[in-house]
Write a structure and sequence with these properties.
Radius of gyration: 17 Å
Number of helices: 8
Low-confidence stretches: none
Oligomer: single chain
Strand order of the largest sheet: 1-2-4-5-6-7-8-9
CATH superfamily: Phosphatidylinositol (PI) phosphodiesterase
Structural class: alpha/beta
Number of strands: 9
CATH architecture: Alpha-Beta Barrel
Length: 236
């Protein structure tokens, strides 16, 4: 698993909307692999139980459709266009087929405590059929624990967000909840993915990947305090 520390990861692929390449798209993953970068992507479960690559819980902000991702089948989601481009929502297996082992992939698991095991098993099945370096990571410690118990052969990481965050998008009550539950759940991660403000100084027991780096200044912080980093809107 040396690749975990030696690769730099394009956040949701190497996307550039000005070039018609949206985040979490086949084109973004191909661009990252061609440029020699690793890839970080998000996955959720479709209505028919397939892992699809998409970040938000709903389709409203990023596609020409509306409503929850979980309400549509993978085939229906595959007809949703991303940010007014020709790109559509891919299945996880389709995204990995584009990468084809050319770059390491970090797969963020977007699952809920009530349904732990459904998305996780679906992702495990896809990874097991894929020939290339992959790891999973999640904010949800119960998801990481599932992989520890039922898919120990897949590298797993726990994502940590600070109470003060530059990434936004998550209310402080949820950050507190994740931090408190994570402290009680044993999931033996192979690595941690730390939000930049939450990075610790000094040596780490396991590799640390920082996120999300968006400037040369932030890259300097990540290089001093982490083994690797996830970046966006720049090329390190």
């Amino acid at each position: 698993m040396e690749w975990l520390s030696t690769s730099l990861y394009a956040h949701r692929g190497l996307h550039d909307l000005a070039k018609g390449v949206p985040e979490n798209s086949r084109a973004a993953f191909d661009a990252a692999a061609e440029a020699g970068y690793g890839i970080e992507l998000d996955t959720r479960l479709s209505a028919d139980g397939e892992p699809v690559v998409f970040h938000d819980r709903t389709l409203d902000a990023l596609t020409d459709n509306t409503g929850p991702v979980a309400a549509l089948t993978a085939e229906e989601l595959g007809r949703c266009h991303l940010l007014e481009t020709a790109e559509t929502i891919p299945r996880l297996q389709d995204a990995l087929q584009v990468v084809a082992g050319r770059a390491p992939v970090l797969i963020e698991i977007k699952s809920h405590i009530q349904s732990i095991g459904l998305l996780e098993q679906a992702v495990r099945d896809v990874i097991d059929a894929y020939d290339g370096p992959c790891a999973i990571l999640s904010f949800n410690p119960y998801s990481v624990r599932w992989f520890c118990k039922f898919a120990a052969h897949i590298p797993r990481g726990r994502t940590i967000i600070g109470l003060i965050s530059t990434s936004g998008g998550m209310p402080i009550w949820r950050r507190l909840l994740l931090r408190s539950s994570a402290a009680m759940v044993r999931c033996d991660p192979h690595f941690y993915a730390y939000d930049l403000p939450a990075l610790r100084r000094g040596p780490n027991r396991v590799p640390v990947i920082a996120w999300t780096v968006r400037s040369s200044h932030e890259q300097g912080i990540a290089q001093r305090r982490a083994n690797s980093f996830i970046f966006e809107n720049m090329k390190p």
